[in-house]
């Protein structure tokens, strides 16, 4: 029996991507097998295809680390997940396939109130936003907060969680269309990146969320004394070197974190995902429609994400059997 998957034999442009039948994954006693309904596409998948980012060793390579689906086989030692259960996984390799082997402690149970598509559209970006607020920043109520790239995948979810937690949120975006989108998230104000917004904002914010990287010097400039930058990514490029002595002189701190270091057990995944899903249930997070593309059209999906023209999540959908 074979499964259909998006795969590649060598690193390179979208032209290396192939779609076709491969052998089904085998599971051990501590795994479950998930039949995917939606698979999340992330920028990291493009780096992996190009060969510039860690990818699971496999012949052929299969990209993708997050998806939603139904458990279709359960290992002998697994007790907390059952056949037919709908589940999310966000840190599991070889996800660009109809069938994915998932270690049972990596399973995230999903509430009946959310569709597979909704859960997939929150996935990794939602858990990132949740850990940035609750693990790294903490106690954001009443704080003046700046979010770079607020209309991005993580940015939109982050903004809504911050607003729900009582923070006063300002965002930065690149275009008027993204500004309108961000303004609909309940935030205080949204500045266009190519304006001189930072001059009027020097020493203004208690917290700055910086997933753009190149913006780190600006983030420190607009931070109050005793403020904190939450530095979590380099979507715009690597930041320049920062002098810790200069930070000390103004009591400014940079906090960093990688979600994978926080998703370290079944319980950690459950607690964080339940907290996240509650924001959706209370309508504090509103989900924008995702772009759904067949897994077989993976090449076009990679092209769309690489073009920078997409807004919101791109989900890959396996063909139904
Ligand atoms: N630490 C973790 O555990 C973790 C986990 C997941 C993701 N991340 C990181 O989170 C970040 C966002 O990921 P995502 O999935 O939300 O990606 P995304 O949807 O592509 O969003 C990226 C955002 O970065 C902004 N941006 C790009 N270039 C910029 C520049 N030169 N200056 C300022 N802003 C710039 C864009 O803003 P405009 O569209 O307005 O230009 C866009 O909103 C990435 O850096 C990713 O690596 C970190």
TrEMBL record:
GO terms for molecular function: mRNA 3'-UTR AU-rich region binding; NADPH binding; quinone reductase (NADPH) activity. The keyword Phosphoprotein does not apply. Residues 12-316 form the Enoyl reductase (ER) domain. It comes from the Bacteria. This is NADPH quinone reductase. Keywords: NADP, Oxidoreductase. The keyword NADP applies. One of its GO terms (cellular component) is cytosol.
